[in-house]
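Hi support team,

I've been running sequence recovery on a batch of backbones for a student project. Most finish fine, but this one hangs at about 90% for roughly twenty minutes before it completes. I'm not sure whether the input is malformed or the queue is just slow. I've pasted the structure tokens below so you can try to reproduce it. Let me know if you need the job ID as well.

Thanks,
M.K.
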């Protein structure tokens, strides 16, 4: 099998898209010490701060480099719902973004907790919330994508919750650490090549 060379300043990741075509049977939402708070029209700074806190370890950067007008068009669109996960003190420790802009579909755009809470079983609570909110009248499909930059358990997590893989793609982009978009120590599981 031939290898595809990736220049040192670039990163390549395999993106897997998964979908759910039927509303799952109702389940109890697991008990948690969190609450979900809907953000209606958050400021770009507030949104990006939470996006960075949750996504930096996995090299989320798309919304950090997006022009402000484009970001506002998404996060202020009434068909895009942004939720902050808060602990009992009101500290934002996770996020859920659901995109209903395509008729009949709910996309989980962003989903996760801060690093300290990742891999500790908290995702089941957040996924129960996502499924409860996402499956509403006229929704016929929920979908999500994950990639090899995400937590190593992300793909199996989505599959455990009923999502079925339907597509795979390779995404390449300039390493955002080299441009200073995210700190050089972000995503330590992906080596910086310079």
């Amino acid at each position: 099998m031939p290898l595809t060379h990736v220049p040192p300043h670039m990163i390549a990741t395999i993106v897997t898209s998964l979908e759910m075509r039927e509303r799952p049977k109702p389940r109890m939402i697991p008990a948690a010490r969190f609450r979900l708070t809907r953000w209606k029209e958050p400021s770009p700074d507030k949104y990006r701060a939470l996006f960075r806190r949750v996504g930096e370890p996995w090299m989320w950067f798309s919304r950090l480099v997006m022009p402000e007008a484009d970001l506002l068009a998404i996060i202020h669109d009434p068909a895009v719902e942004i939720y902050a996960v808060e602990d009992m003190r009101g500290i934002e420790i996770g996020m859920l973004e659901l995109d209903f802009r395509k008729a009949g579909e709910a996309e989980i755009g962003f989903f996760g907790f801060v690093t300290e809470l990742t891999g500790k079983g908290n995702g089941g609570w957040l996924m129960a919330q996502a499924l409860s909110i996402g499956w509403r009248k006229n929704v016929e499909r929920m979908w999500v994508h994950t990639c090899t930059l995400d937590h190593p358990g992300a793909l199996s997590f989505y599959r455990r919750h009923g999502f079925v893989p339907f597509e795979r793609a390779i995404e390449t982009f300039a390493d955002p650490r080299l441009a200073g978009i995210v700190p050089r120590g972000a995503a330590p599981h992906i080596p910086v090549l310079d």
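--
Follow-up from support: It reproduced on our side and the slowdown came from queue contention, not your input. Residues 44-55 form the longest helix (12 residues). No action needed from you.
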